[in-house]
Design a protein that fits this description.
Number of helices: 11
Strand content: 15-25%
Structural class: alpha+beta
Helix content: 25-40%
Shape: globular
Number of strands: 17
Radius of gyration: 19 Å
Order of helices and strands: HHEHEEEEEEEHHEHEEEEHHHEHEEEH
Distance between the termini: 43 Å
Largest sheet: 7 strands, mixed
Length: about 375
């Protein structure tokens, strides 16, 4: 992490609070495998913090943010923009083992992958957001893409979704999502493991309650049934646990991720973090160093304007849904988009219409009921 300069004196006005609530387990089961993903949380804090009256505290952090020029990388081979003022954002959590991430218990896999992928749809009117998670083990057709350093990579079938990031780059992940959904991504955001860990540590931890003991030697998580205060490293173990829940697949851990999302939002609201510019500055510094966006969002000013445009969105009402998937018939360790549910889901988002309950149900459950 770079040197953090001492923030100027605080203003008397404080940015608005954010909040959240916890869905019950029954709703989680019947709602069709709803998922909350860690990456969205850190970005939400950053955007809200930057949109407050203390924005000038963070203006020197612009240089931390890395960017991807999607227009240059993708050209015109993209879906048309929706004829509404709605917004669609692809949010990725990358699991690079390089840099600060090397000290975390994230495994021994070389390179980097998109550990988490969310298509966040904000309808016209900006009142209620929908986040669709694409399971990392989903087999997809990767379109022809051009790498950032120039070479063109041909299209390929039955490619695991989370491998596209390391094979071709983030722009190709955007192109793949646009191809399978028919939805143009207006923006792109990415944060890595180290940024997430820094966020949790900066707020002093997050409290969670588990009904059963969880012992996962792979992620390092070791919790007894009951209530626990998790630090940043433990939180990463919590949201990445696979072998301690369900059938050990990516699908089995989604309940924990949903629980953690609501717990973190509740912690932010309880602490009134955004009323403390000095503390928020530290969070923003940590996050911007771990943040990559599309070129249009690659500044605190742009993030602030985007955050203000979403003032009407209540985080507690955001619906999180897993893309309906079925176990692959050839390789049961992989999943494929379940039809007609997946097509119905994407169509609803394209038309800014309500998502039918049938489009939220996934044949592949990850060992959960």
């Amino acid at each position: 992490m770079s040197h953090v300069p001492t923030p100027p004196p605080t203003e008397t006005d404080a940015p608005p609070k954010s909040g959240g609530g916890r869905r019950g387990a029954e709703r989680e089961r019947t709602g069709g495998r709803r998922i909350g993903r860690k990456i969205l949380l850190g970005l939400a804090v950053l955007v809200i913090a930057a949109s407050g009256t203390g924005y000038w505290l963070y203006s020197d952090l612009d240089g931390n943010i890395k960017d991807v020029d999607l227009d240059k990388a993708l050209g015109d081979d993209r879906p048309e923009k929706l004829p509404t003022s709605g917004q669609n954002i692809l949010v990725l959590g990358s699991d690079s083992r390089a840099g600060a991430n090397a000290a975390l218990k994230t495994g021994n896999v070389s390179g980097a992958r998109s550990d988490t992928a969310l298509v966040m749809h904000i309808p016209e009117g900006r009142e209620k957001a929908v986040a669709v998670s694409i399971p990392r083990d989903t087999l997809v057709t990767r379109p022809e893409c051009t790498k950032a350093d120039g070479p063109t990579v041909p299209s390929a079938q039955r490619v695991m979704f989370n491998s596209i990031y390391s094979q071709v780059g983030s722009a190709c992940v955007v192109k793949t999502v646009e191809q399978i959904s028919g939805i143009r991504m207006d923006h792109y955001m990415e944060i890595d493991f180290a940024g997430f860990k820094g966020l949790v540590d900066a707020i002093g931890g997050v409290t969670v309650t588990v009904d059963k003991d969880i012992h996962d030697t792979s992620s390092g998580l070791d919790l007894t049934a009951g209530t626990h205060r998790l630090n940043g490293t433990q939180s990463l173990e919590f949201v990445r646990t696979r072998h301690g829940v369900g059938d050990g697949s990516d699908l089995g851990r989604i309940g924990l991720q949903q629980q953690f999302m609501t717990a973190l939002l509740s912690e932010i609201k309880k602490q009134d973090l955004l009323g403390s510019p000095a503390k928020t500055y530290g969070i923003a510094d940590s996050l911007t160093q771990a943040l990559t966006t599309d070129s249009d969002l690659a500044s605190l000013k742009a993030l602030a304007e985007f955050g203000r445009s979403m003032n009407g969105v209540d985080p507690s009402t955001m619906e999180t849904i897993m893309l309906p998937v079925a176990y692959d018939k050839v390789d049961p360790n992989r999943v494929v988009a379940a039809e007609p549910q997946a097509s119905t889901l994407w169509k609803a988002l394209r038309s800014d219409s309500a998502i039918p309950e049938s489009a939220k149900k996934s044949p592949a459950t990850g060992g959960s009921s």
